[in-house]
Amino acid sequence: MRVDADAPNAVAQVSCGRVARSIWAVIVDPDSGSELPDGEVGELLVRGPYTLRGYYNVPEYNARTFTPDGFYCSGDLMRQHPSGNYMVEGRKKDLINRGGEKISAEEIENLILSHPAVQNVACVPVPDPSLGERMCACVVLRKGRSLNLPQLVDFLMKKEIAKFKLPERLEIRDELPRNPLGKILKRELRDELRQ
């Protein structure tokens, strides 16, 4: 991707740019695969002369990774700014589906990280019988600080996010599980919270 030289500086600083003219790009609903209007968050699909057509000898993987008409399913959640630039919103695997509304865990984590009491956070889905999933924020606090769910919700409401994106559960942790490279293991958190 390339950043458009004519884009306003504020847009250029927060976007990952535009797709080259020789590439077809669409943003689709991650579940239905239907194309979304500009400004909506969905999965970026790309196709073009430099896009690979598939991986050798793995037909099952190819069936999940490429559409029948040759688009590569990136797994990246993006939206297109009115300038034409693309804004990264997270990863498809990191979505919470609350009653059909898709919530980017990364978007909410970045907002929660701006709270002065929070040192680290991981937002994960927990099962819900009526909505399918609800969001739980697993938070590591800074030394000597405290935080409860109403305080966190009040803080996030001041950030003017949609109400359906608010965490409905808060877990205060001493640490978050990590792999040897330091990546947070959200699957372990999900499994633990489901019990």
Explain this structure:
The chain is α+β, with helices and mostly antiparallel strands. The chain folds into 2 domains: 9-92, Luciferase, Domain 3 (Luciferase, domain 3, Roll), CATH 2.30.38.10; 99-194, GMP Synthetase, Chain A, domain 3, CATH 3.30.300.30. It contains 5 helices and 9 strands, in the order αββαββββαββαβα. A 4-stranded antiparallel β-sheet has the order 1-2-3-4. A 3-stranded mixed β-sheet has the order 7-8-9. Strand 8 (132-141), helix 4 and strand 9 (169-173) form a beta-alpha-beta unit. The radius of gyration is 19 Å and the shape is globular. Mean pLDDT is 86; it is low at 1-5.
Keywords for this structure?
5 helices, GMP Synthetase, Chain A, domain 3, alpha+beta, Luciferase, domain 3, 195 residues, four-stranded antiparallel beta sheet
Oligomeric state, counting identical vs distinct chains = single chain
Distance between the termini: 42 Å
Radius of gyration: 19 Å
Look at the structure and give the mean pLDDT: 86
Number of domains: 2
| The CATH C-level class name of the largest domain | Alpha Beta
What structural class results from the helix and strand content?
Answer: alpha+beta
- Please bin the fraction of helical residues: 10-25%
CATH topology of the largest domain: GMP Synthetase, Chain A, domain 3
Give the second-level CATH assignment, the architecture of the largest domain. 2-Layer Sandwich
What is the number of beta strands? 9
- Uncertain spans, ≥5 residues at pLDDT below 50? 1-5
Number of helices: 5
Largest sheet geometry: 4 strands, antiparallel
Q: Hey, roughly how much beta strand do the residues contain? A: 25-35%
CATH homology superfamily of the largest domain? ANL, C-terminal domain
**Can you write the helix and strand succession as a string?**
HEEHEEEEHEEHEH
What order do the strands of the largest sheet run in, or round the barrel if closed?
1-2-3-4
